[in-house]
Amino acid sequence: MLIPEQITGKFIARIFISTALFFLVIPPFRQGLKQYFCKVFGGEKPKLSVAFSWYTNLAKVFGAICLYIYIGILTVLWAVAILAIPGAAIILSGITGMWWLYVAGTVAYGIGFLLLAIKLMAYMPAYYIYAKKPSIGVLAAVRNSVYITSGRLTECFIFRLRF
Fold it and tell me: What does R_g of the chain's alpha carbons equal in angstroms?
């Protein structure tokens, strides 16, 4: 059973420890991999140690974690902004029994997911921008990412769909 019948302090401690370990391990490693691939695509032949180089500097570890959390917060905020009204329409259709409201809400929800996926393409280059130059900071990396993708979000979405 994944969730116990009674949530105890031990269960909460396990969740906290596993979340902390996740954020200490995954974001710095992924940023190291992105830095490695940036060097490969730049024509260099980097050593595999580049993928683990983000663990050698506490500022880089903290920056990678902040980048992932910041983009996660932006993702949640955009999802709420785009999907709240269709979701409310679906819930309201269940209360009122209006079948057409359910259909309209479901269609709007599907379109909303598509729009959300397209909007989130604006943040994808931020990871590579920050991997190439961590000294610019998390906010500048996200700002630059939004700037370079402005007007090209649909192109980015179609490019990702091809893979």
Answer: 20
CB–CB of 119/87 below 8 Å? no
86, 101 Cβ separation under 8 angstroms: no
Asked whether 138 and 130 are in contact (CB, 8 A), the reply is: yes
Range 33-41, long-range pairs (CB < 8 A, 24+ positions): 34/127, 34/128, 34/131, 35/131, 35/132, 38/128, 38/131, 38/132
H-helix segments, the chain: 9-41, 58-96, 99-120, 124-132, 138-149, 153-161
pLDDT for position 5: 81
Q: What is the pLDDT of residue 1?
A: 58
Please give the angle made by the CA atoms of 23, 65 and 53, to the nearest 5 degrees. Answer: 90
Question: What pLDDT sits at residue 125?
Answer: 93
Mean pLDDT, rounded, of the chain: 92
pLDDT in tens, 15-69: 999 999 999 999 999 999 999 999 999 999 999 999 999 999 899 999 999 999 9
User: Residue 115 contacts by C-beta under 8 Å, 6 or more apart in sequence?
Assistant: 82
